[in-house]
Amino acid sequence: MPTPDPTPASSRGVHEEYLRSLGLPLMIVPSTRSREILIRSAGVSAGLAVATTGLSALDRSNDYAVALLERVGEDSPDLDDIGLTDPIVLLLLLALGLFVASPILGWLVARMVRGLGRVPGSVVGLASAVALLVAAPLTFERHDGPGPATTSLLLVGVLVGTYIGAGSLVRWAARRVRRELGTMGHMVARVLPVLMLAVLFLFFSAEIWQVMVALSWPRTFAVVGVMGLLTVLLVAITTRDDLHDELEARAPGRELRMSERINILLVPVLATLIQAALFACLVFLFFVFLGWIAIPEATETRWTLRPTEDLGGLLAGVPVSVTLVRVALTLAAFSALNLAAAAASDTAHRARFVRPMIDEVVHGLAARETYHRARRRG
């Protein structure tokens, strides 16, 4: 449920929650974020403390299994001799229970601290942080699961992420994904027909199949990563220029901290990248389906001069080849890059999809001014 717009008479906390709902947690003054760091990190710390303990239990179970194999030699042990009271089974069940309980406990702790005052909430947050730091190393032996160095890094990551508002950005991104899914029809109808004129020729070209069949998975992901990096750079550069021009036109002379400038740039960049990622997923599924129905094994073998290679592992039995998946991934990444280019150059696309994001940023800056007036009034 979206956070309602605060009124001028709203409390400072209401204004802060509204800024977080807009994906602008860095607009909140650093002193406030520092005071609330233990309270807002309590749920994540508690959930990770339980999850790391589950990893230790799983690692300990693996140690027992290795010791059992060493005792029986190369022959597999008789599974009938392993009952429900065996330490291996008990530890596996404990690990599974802890993994399931970790997000539930984290959610319950996060909700509980919201109803407490600042001091009790900070005490709960401190206890959760200490639990994350010592629960896994003290519950089992040091070589089982995450050690003190790992849990210390996790705790530092949680505290830093809480300070910069990573949780608020994740929640905002999740809401944005749901919102963009509702507008995908308009984007597909506008962008996909023109894109297909170029991409379909590539898909039915033997050369791209010959290139992709010779690539390993690391090289394939490297190609996709290069296109993804180009997409991010293109979106970031064009969005930064648009924001600079818009802010100079609507709010000249407004002074912002460096963190605030990064935050207002991050919101439209992430929104555009979410659009590009969803569009790339749609293009990937389209080409996998098209290749399945339009390119038989004999045609692929004639193009690649190699026998088709089926997917393995959990995807064994899926009626598509490895080369088809690699071709679809590459064309999906190219389509995301094309969408970013359209956002930078196509006037109609900018008016339909980019301009509302800029307006949201301007609205967020207005909310920031209202928040600072509420702080001065308080």
Could you walk me through the main structural features you see in this protein, from its secondary elements to its overall organization?
Helices cover 79% and strands 0% of the residues. With 378 residues, the chain is mainly alpha-helical.
Mean pLDDT: 81
Contiguous runs where pLDDT drops below 50 for at least 5 residues = none
Alpha-beta content class: mainly alpha
Number of strands: 0
The backbone outline, from C-alpha atoms, is flat
The major sheet is characterized as: none
Give the oligomeric state: single chain
- Helix-strand sequence: HHHHHHHHHHHHH
Termini separation comes to: 28 Å
Please compute the radius of gyration using only Cα atoms. 26 Å
**Percent range for helical residues?**
over 70%
Task: Give the secondary structure arrangement, pairings included.
Blueprint: H1 12-21, H2 30-35, H3 37-72, H4 87-114, H5 118-139, H6 148-164, H7 166-203, H8 206-213, H9 217-250, H10 258-294, H11 297-304, H12 322-345, H13 347-377
Helix pairs in contact: 1-13, 3-4, 3-5, 3-6, 4-5, 5-6, 7-10, 7-12, 8-12, 9-10, 9-12, 10-12, 10-13, 12-13
Short description:
The chain is an all-alpha fold and 378 residues long. It has 13 helices and no strands.
Write a concise keyword list for the protein shown above.
single chain; 79% helix; mainly alpha; 378 residues; flat
